[in-house]
Amino acid sequence: MNLVSSNSKKVFLCSNTKIDEKGKVDIILSPEFYWVRVFDIPVKSTTQARHVLPTLFEDILENVNELSYQVIKLEDDKYLCFAYENKKIYESIKKSGISLSSINSVYFAQNECNNIEQFVAENKSFLYTQDGILVKVPNGLLNDATNINTILDQIELSSNKVEIKLYNNVLTPKQIYSLVAVLLVLACVNFFKFYDYKNENAKLEEKTEILKVNSNLPSSMIQTNSILKKYKNIASKEIKKREAIAYILENKAIKLKKLKLEKDVLNLQFINTDKRKADAYISKKYKILSSQVTSLSLDIKVKL
Amino acid sequence: MNRLNPLYVIALGITIVFVSFFLLKEEVKLYNENNNEFSMIQVKAKEYKDFKSSWNNKAFVNKTLNQILRSSSFKSQKILRVDTKNSVKLKMISDNPRILNSLLNKILNKKLIIKKLELDKTYIDLEIGLK
């Protein structure tokens, strides 16, 4: 007994069935939707038997490669084989008004109506042949046939569900698998690179910390920058002092007697030097704070 | 699986690929940032080390001054040196302007903080800062 389907409504689906059902349904497919045969196949499993089904159905059907197959083992080397067109069933279900999301399971009438010898549904007649195969027969052939819809609730569904794809196949399974495989490979490559970069980041962070420790850098970059700024200021001021001294000393036209540097003020004392010339030369690059002539000496104060 | 529309599977796959690209992009961005930071710290560490081992480094100042003053040209000169907590005072008296010029050149070419400098025909008076 199928516990899952016990609360679902059973629907016998023919090609012209119309139904307005909101709840969960179990669909029993009428023989219009499939071909069934008993084949003697000398294999041990249904999986093996399934592989040879396209060849066996080739005698009675066309386009065997576009069909889906299902096998039920009856006894050793004897299999009940189904062939069906997935798309046709999918379209009929949609046409019937049944919501795809409300479908619980789909069954072949062949397996579910064993207890009913002959019946009618949607003005179509069905009966089990002597071989035990359920077939559609012309209307009027059956005299005392039961309407299947009146006894649907009494039917106990088997475990032989139809493996049906309830979606429209835009892509073939091969294309789908290929596409999914490509996407997975791409994702795998990305994740691999992601972890690679993550490891590299961890290594870089470790290297940075080691560098900070080995160079005795302060713990924060703000402190480091502040100290560096202080040192750069010192270096810049010292370079300025040296440049100024070099500038004064390189001019041989002005005779320097004494040079005194204190903080950023340069006191210069010249002898026998033309004040205008000296002032003009120094003021080209530096600001002169004062310039005085005392007897033979010229005193100039320069701001660096 | 038969009920699951493959388009959903493909959509899921595409989403995973997008997520993987996003994560990878973020990680690459972080890697570039870390790399830049490492290069910057390398440069700063070198500068820091250079500065720390010169200018106001007491050991460097002493070593440099000793090296200069030990030079053969200054051995016979009168040199006064006073080491204080914050500076080193140095005075060289010489009638030879070349020697005074040589000392001035040597001092000015080193990474020393010149707090005071007095240059006359017969002497050089210097104060080298340690702070």
Protein model, in words:
The complex is a heterodimer of chains A (304) and B (131). Chain A has 304 residues and is of the alpha+beta class. Chain A has helices at residues 46-57, 86-96, 109-112, 148-151, 173-214, 221-250, 275-283, and strands spanning 9-13, 25-29, 34-40, 68-75, 78-84, 103-108, 118-121, 124-128, 134-137, 146-147, 256-262, 265-271, 287-294, 297-303. Chain A starts with 8 loop residues before the first strand and ends with a strand. In chain A, 21% of the residues are buried. Chain B has 131 residues and is α+β, with helices and mostly antiparallel strands. Chain B has helices spanning 6-52, 58-69, 97-108, and strands at 78-83, 87-93, 113-119, 123-129. Chain B has a four-stranded antiparallel sheet, covered by helices on one side. The longest helix of chain B has 47 residues, at 6-52. In chain B, 17% of the residues are buried. The mean pLDDT of chain B is 89. Chains A and B meet through helix 5, helix 6 and strand 11 of A and helix 1 and strand 3 of B.
The chain pair with the largest interface is: A-B, 55 and 48 residues
Strand content of chain A: 25-35%
**CA(first)-CA(last) distance of chain A:** 104 Å
CATH class of the largest domain in chain A: Alpha Beta
The largest pleated sheet of chain A is described as: 4 strands, mixed
**Number of discrete helical segments of chain A:** 7
Give me the CATH fold name of the largest domain in chain A: Nucleotidyltransferase, domain 5
Number of strands of chain A: 14
Give the averaged pLDDT of chain A, no decimals: 88
CATH architecture of the largest domain in chain B: 2-Layer Sandwich
Unreliable stretches of chain B (pLDDT < 50, length at least 5) are none
> Which structural class matches the secondary elements of chain A?
alpha+beta
Please tell me the total number of domains of chain A. Answer: 2
Beta strand count of chain B:
4
- Any idea what the shape of chain B is? rod-shaped
Structural class of chain B: alpha+beta
Mean pLDDT of chain B: 89
